[in-house]
Amino acid sequence: MKTTDKISITSTVNNNIKTVWKTWTKPEHIKNWNNASDDWHTTKAKNDLKVGGKFSSRMEAKNGSMGFDFGGTYDEVIPNKYISYTLDDGRKVTIHFVETVNGIRVTETFEPESENPKDMQRQGWQAILDNFKRYVEAVN
What is the CATH number of domain 7-138? Predict the structure, then answer.
């Protein structure tokens, strides 16, 4: 179930667009940054980055207590600039990559689900984006 109010999160990553894009889209990198906290990890990631292509990842608690699959289908892909997709539950997500003097500004906008409070969802997605930033800035 989805609600209509969209949530946006953003972060500016100090690296070049080529590295930011590659790190966002390649499964071998996704598995290294796609978690909101150190007690979670992504055990599997697949990504067919094209319109109509599918992506999926498996996020699990490191202690094995819980996990979930996250996936969807790409609606639009403009390399180094923009991605939009529809999650398997029907919610829409957009991601903008904008070059600025301070680095690459990544902005994700998503339709929240209705099971968890919006603030919790915003914090979770922001924590993952912050982890992405840390990972990319460590990559050379």
Answer: 3.30.530.20
